[in-house]
Specification:
Length: 501
Amino acid sequence: MSYPLNKIRILHLEDLSADAELVEWQLRKEDFEFEIMLVDNRESYRDALHTFSPNIIISDHSLPSFNSMEALILKKEWNPDIPFILVTSTVSEEFAVRVMKEGASDYILKDRLERLPSSVINCIEKFKAEQEKLKVREELLESRANLKAILDNTDTGYILISPELMIASFNQRAVELAQFQFSKALRKGSYAPDFFKEDRKQRIIEILNSAMLGNKTEYEISYSQPDGSYRWFFISYARILDAEDKILGVIMSITDINRRKLSELEKDLITTDLIKRNSAMEQFSYIVSHNLRAPVTSILGLEYLLRDGGLSEVERNEIHKALTDATANLDTIVKDLNEILQVTQNASEQLSDVSLQELIDGIKSAIIHSIEKVQANLVCDFTLVNSMKAVKSNLYSIFYNLIVNSIKFHRAGDPPVILITSKRDGDLIVFSVKDNGQGIDLEKHEKNLFGLYNTFNESSSGRGMGLFMVKTHVDLLNGMITVASKEGEGTEFLISLPDIA
């Protein structure tokens, strides 16, 4: 038999020395160490409780001016958990029930003392087990309190979701985020997917079920704010197991990453802007060095010829005409360069809500004579997207140049039909500008389609500025443009621009 303590301290309340010796003798028969203190009155009993600090109390029932019930009450006041064994000659069944209800651990008749040692050991072991449970419970409560204090003071919101997808628990930060972001109160026992918007509910169910299988999911998402801005959060779903690898549920963590995300987006925006500006500067330098060289060289050459005094009147007139043409060409190039510079200077223009139909109506008014001259039919369908936030001048230039090109390069004998539509595709707004014009040989011209002064129709008087300006404005709006075309069948431009809420 194993014993819970190296040396058990026993307080024995007994006024008859013979009975006390009999109890000690019976205990000595068992192979365990103990120290016993004998008391026989109230005062010595009360003192021993504090000075001797017994592990167990053995008490006779009836003593002069003192009894076991009073002893039991004093024990409970001192330490209610210490075992108390009643050892008496004879008691009624009613009294035995009463004393057990009052907190006695056991009662033994004096003619059956052989049962005492095992009762002492059993009571001590039970007491120790209860103390261990109490200690574990206290440590658990303390641990939970510490964990709650930590979780309630973290910047991350945590929500524990059960295998049945019910909200099991959450920390204070989760409560704050739920109320601030969704104006909803978290409730234990509620169905977790119901917390999300209807269009996200099915996806959340899929994520939670996948996480229950051990597949961790993480993503960044932005939510609109009352002031029209967006706030970024990092969301994570991870499975939680107990010590026996039983699934407790999924922990959903929500972290506000708005400051970091805005810093990243600003950095990306600055980097993209620098790349665009560098590319624009390189292109502008090329334009200046390449396109200005030819007319300037012509002017210098013609001026040198005019110095020759031996020129005839006819030759002089021809040189003057060539000089005028070269000067006019130079003036055109300078105007084009000025227009390009103007576009880049307008890059800082403020965003505004642009009505697409009003924008196209403004363009139609500006080119009404060109439209009427060729009986062009301009059809718009903005049912899916009728407005967007953008730099209006950039958007105007994109549609203006595409519409003018469609009119300019229409098929002879066929009135131009231009169809403009809009739609949403994820976080993009996509515009289609489609015509029934001459079309473009993309195999031959696609590489240089948006280059400056590139023309694809020798019969046209165009300078090759239109598509260059379209591409420049699309880039300034952080968009993308693609083209599909076939000679003799028309052209379709697709412009994808960010949907800025």
